[in-house]
Amino acid sequence: xxxxxxxxxxxxxxxxxxxxxxxxxxxxxxxxxxxxxxxxxxxxxxxxxxxxxxxxxxxxxxxxxxxxxxxxxxxxxxxxxxxxxxxxxxxxxxxxxxxxxxxxxxxxxxxxxxxxxxxxxxxxxxxxxxxxxxxxxxxxxxxxxxxxxxxxxxxxxxxxxxxxxxxxxxxxxxxxxxxxxxxxxxxxxxxxxxxxxxxxxxxxxxxxxxxxxxxxxxxxxxxxxxxxxxxxxxx
Length: 235
What we know:
The protein is an all-alpha fold. It contains 13 helices and no strands. The chain has helices spanning 4-8, 23-33, 36-46, 52-57, 61-69, 74-87, 92-115, 129-135, 144-149, 153-160, 165-183, 191-206, 212-227. It is globular and about 50 Å long.
């Protein structure tokens, strides 16, 4: 299914500008126009690690047995389950978006853990090849296997070293924005274009009220949580 008329009515957006359309307005618009199948894809993108679908999985004995074998927190385990749902999606765009964010978030978390002398294994989520390499520890820049698996490894590692916390967040979002642009270059009126547009608006809305003080608080909470063996939710 294509969405020519829907996309034609979208507000023009850019990473350096504020978005005028509220999230509520966009959600209403998408709910009105998306097919039932595409609504399922959209719902998966918006799913959090503490929603009903994830909590329901925790009632499965086999899933609980897996949790017992891991050294990560309950919160990180829920995040891992969320990523697993996304990575199983039949839609390539959605599947690759989850994979991209999993790798970026894991590299960032590992870089911070290494810098502050923390246990990398307790902050890495998932069990793909990137996660396995990160759990081995050591310098990220000297891991040739990791560099081959993560094309943006050097850039992500450099972002992790930025001392200006808001600047670092902006670089991360710029990396995500570029990924969305690259993956939808030839996807003009299909669901992938719609989903990418929504994801871009979430990036812009996140910056509406974020201050320097809030950015510093996020970082302090991140380090404190990592010391306790937990990690902030993947965005």
